[in-house]
Amino acid sequence: MLHFTEVLTLLDNNRYCSGQALVQRFNVTRATIHNCIAKIESLGISVELIRGLGYRLMQPVDLLNHAEIQSKLSSQAANKLADIQCLQEVDSTNRYAGELELPQPGEFSLVLAEMQTAGKGRRGRQWVSPYAANVYLSVLWPLQRPLHEAGILSPMLAISMLTALGQLDVSGLSLKWPNDIYCHNKKLAGLLIESSGEINGGCKMIIGMGVNVLMSQFENVNIDQQWTDMYSYTQDWQHSRNDVVAKLVDSTVSTLIQFENNTFEGLVEIWSQWDLMKDKHVELHSGQFVQAGVARGIDSDGCLLLETSKGVEKISVGDISLRARV
Ligand code: ATP
């Protein structure tokens, strides 16, 4: 059966492609082509149809390509890549990566998807993941240090994501404890680290990243807080989503190696440089419970330092959401 992506890859925003040409190319009926176009439109990609001319995409569509991604990786990351899978659609890249075989120590596997139908956020929340709009990736990494030392990976990897996005010229970046990247005060990207122990003592780290790249160009995006994408805050956008993936993976692998070798330095100071909430009045939400205070950065364990009338409390990542006080 004809998959809609076969039609999508033939469509362009600069020229029309006739329905008849598609029928002949794939040896299918008009109705099949019509169904593929309807599926493409249902994914938020607008297609123009002009009688006598054919179909044209209203905006360019930038698809993932695993060969291109591999060719753009740094030699450090490329040498450690055990497996790469580029899926069209998956419930969650983290869920999928968690079921893969663990690579050898020092190597990693990479799962990417054009869309997630049940992208995971923290605490069972959903990460909105429309088709071909953003980057959704999971790195599967065999942890070599004890699991209880891995809490610090969340701020370390958030910093490394921010660094990668900065290298792609996104302006106005900041970090929101514990795992979000903001851009001009709107949510741009999130990180979800999950782990599972193995009977033989090895531990799977699954590092999931969602980065909004071109989402502002797509229709029907419904998110219950302010968000933005890289495209909106990068002057003269020239990057492909493959570029974004390669930069994120390079930066992640380099940070994971520093974590394993215990050579990552300056966590508290680097965080402070990018801290969205630094010295602001904030609220910590945990279920019905709300605690107010002033955010004073993080400590070397990655805990949030919250100043209240009782002094400075260390808050560890858990069932907590940090919000600016309004
Ligand atoms: P927060 O602290 O912002 O409440 P969180 O850290 O508890 O979030 P996350 O896993 O970071 O939870 O993100 C899930 C939330 O992020 C969703 O409930 C939604 O509000 C928002 N969101 C979902 N998809 C996107 C997206 N693509 N871009 C930006 N924000 C999103």
What is this structure's SSE topology?
Layout: H1 4-8, H2 19-26, H3 30-42, E1 47-50, E2 54-57, H4 66-72, H5 75-80, E3 81-90, H6 93-98, E4 108-116, E5 134-143, H7 153-167, E6 173-176, E7 180-183, E8 186-197, E9 203-212, H8 241-261, H9 267-274, E10 281-286, E11 289-298, E12 304-308, E13 311-315, E14 321-324
Structure overview:
27% of the residues lie in helices and 30% in strands. The longest helix has 21 residues, at 241-261. The chain folds into three domains: 4-57, Winged helix-like DNA-binding domain superfamily/Winged helix DNA-binding domain (Arc Repressor Mutant, subunit A, Orthogonal Bundle), CATH 1.10.10.10; 66-269, 2-Layer Sandwich (BirA Bifunctional Protein, domain 2), CATH 3.30.930.10; 277-324, SH3 type barrels, CATH 2.30.30. It contains nine helices and 14 strands. By secondary structure, the protein is of the alpha+beta class.
Tell me the number of strands: 14
SSE series: HHHEEHHEHEEHEEEEHHEEEEE
CATH architectural group of the largest domain: 2-Layer Sandwich
The low-confidence parts are none
Overall shape: globular
Rounded average pLDDT: 93
Give me the Rg, rounded.
21 Å
Main sheet properties: 7 strands, mixed
CATH superfamily grouping of the largest domain: Bira Bifunctional Protein, Domain 2
Structural class: alpha+beta
Query: Total domains, how many?
Result: 3
Ligands bound to this protein structure: adenosine-5'-triphosphate
What percent strand?
Answer: 25-35%
The CATH topology of the largest domain is given as BirA Bifunctional Protein, domain 2
The helical percent reads: 25-40%
Q: Which sequence of strands runs across the widest sheet?
A: 3-4-5-9-8-7-6
- Terminal CA distance reads 54 Å
